[in-house]
Amino acid sequence: MDTAGKIAFVNGKLSVPDHPVIPYIEGDGIGPDIWKAAVMVLDHAVRLCWGEKRGIRWLEVLAGEKAYRETGQWLPHETVETLLDFRVGIKGPLSTPVAGGIRSLNVALRRELNLYACVRPVKYFPGVPSPVRKPEKVDMVVFRENTEDVYAGFELEAGGKETVRLITHLGREYGWRIARDSGLGIKPISRSATRRLVRAALDYAVARDRRSVTLVHKGNIQKFTEGAFRNWGYELCREEFGGVAVTWEECGGHPPPGKILVKDTIADIFFQQVLTRPEEFDLIATMNLNGDYISDALAAQVGGVGMAPGANINYEDGYALFEATHGTAPKYAGLDKVNPSSLILSGVLMLEHLGWADAARLIEQGLVRTFAERRVTYDLARLMEGACELSCSGFAERVCKNMEGPERI
Ligand code: NAP
């Protein structure tokens, strides 16, 4: 067993020592509050499951405001190197720097580590207030492509010399008439990135016995980007998953028993259908921008962004960075007030990724019991009748307590 604490990737599988070193980024704004709460819950679950035999050795790495204060850089090179070295990390939210040449630290981190799949499970915990009538029907996992689309950052500002030159070129060479005072953006969607994202979703569906994968796109309008995503997704399904999955076209929407249905839907009607018929959706595979909108919209159905976990994963080499999906909520920074569930649940995903599923289940049990007791943070308390409002740390302590007891798994 590796005593240095490094997680390795051998023959397509993670090899995790009993005391792995896991780098963490505390995050800006509410980051330190939710990080303290999350680490309390994660450590307690591991201790309850395995005592001293297993444990995480946390290693702080810097990014965001803290990094800028201490090193003058928003994303020090050392942070990226350490995350690559130890393979699996976890982070709180980071504010977007107003200067420094980085558009978004989150996008930069995903790109530096080549974390091509953003995986966001959206599941309802009984008792959590929801704006929909049957939130228990929501049980979806969003696979959002992380490296392309308008997030690739190929943009030119309106009025710039290069912008005008490109507009002129497009007019002359392609006959595209674009107003000269336009800003421009390029939306790359490649066959290779689409295939690895859809492959990740289908592998996940097979491993977890899920029912369907829906490709969400706006291909009726953007034929060679979003439309191509749909076509390449189906192509990949037929080529690599013929034995276990079947496309809508092949089965008319009625898959043989045990086979995963791969279907597609246009993004605009998708937003209606996930509200009116959520039970028809299981895994969602989509591009970067759609995925961003979709995961927040789905999170609203199960209690809001404070409840939504996220993982950024490169399945081809096991690199992963788990993160709260919400932002830094600066007005609540340092108040020990916000809901730490998003980061706690991201930690649950991390434990599953490590193969420490018992600890993951224990935390879910602690959360289920705490919500059932109506002991919640302000965001849920304001929507819940008879709730007992807890602080961020108070909520984490209660989750720890609720993991204990003779009837635990
Ligand atoms: P935000 O930080 O997510 O906050 C928006 C609102 O969401 C908050 O005012 C609060 O609502 C609610 N909220 C967020 N986190 C919560 C939690 N843990 N518990 C309960 N409620 C929570 O979005 P923003 O204000 O648009 O962005 C602030 C900064 O975060 C920006 O710099 C942005 O770039 C950055 N950001 C980072 C990430 C990331 O690191 N992954 C993601 C998104 C945004 P109420 O006011 O209703 O209570």
- Percent range for β-strand residues: 15-25%
User: Which structural class fits the helix and strand makeup?
Assistant: alpha/beta
Calculate Rg over CA atoms: 22 Å
List the ions, cofactors and other small molecules found in this model: NADP nicotinamide-adenine-dinucleotide phosphate
Overall strand count? 17
Number of helices: 14
Low-confidence stretches: none
In whole angstroms, the N-to-C terminal distance is: 27 Å
Mean pLDDT: 93
Shape: globular
Specify the biggest β-sheet. 11 strands, mixed
Tell me the helix content: 40-55%
- With strands numbered from the N-terminus, the spatial order across the biggest sheet is 4-3-5-15-14-6-7-13-10-12-11
Can you characterise this structure?
A hairpin with a 4-residue loop joins strand 14 (309-314) and strand 15 (319-324). Helix 1 (31-50) crosses helix 11 and helix 11 (341-354) runs antiparallel to helix 12 (357-372). By secondary structure, the protein is an alpha/beta fold. The radius of gyration is 22 Å and the shape is globular. An 11-stranded mixed sheet has the order 4-3-5-15-14-6-7-13-10-12-11, with helices on both faces. The protein has a two-stranded antiparallel ribbon with strand order 1-2. The model has no long low-confidence stretch (mean pLDDT 93). It starts with 7 loop residues before the first strand and ends in a 6-residue tail after the last helix. The protein is built from 14 helices and 17 strands. NADP nicotinamide-adenine-dinucleotide phosphate (NAP) is lined by residues 30, 34, 93-96, 106, 305-306, 323, 326-329, 338-339, 342, 379. NADP nicotinamide-adenine-dinucleotide phosphate binds next to loops.
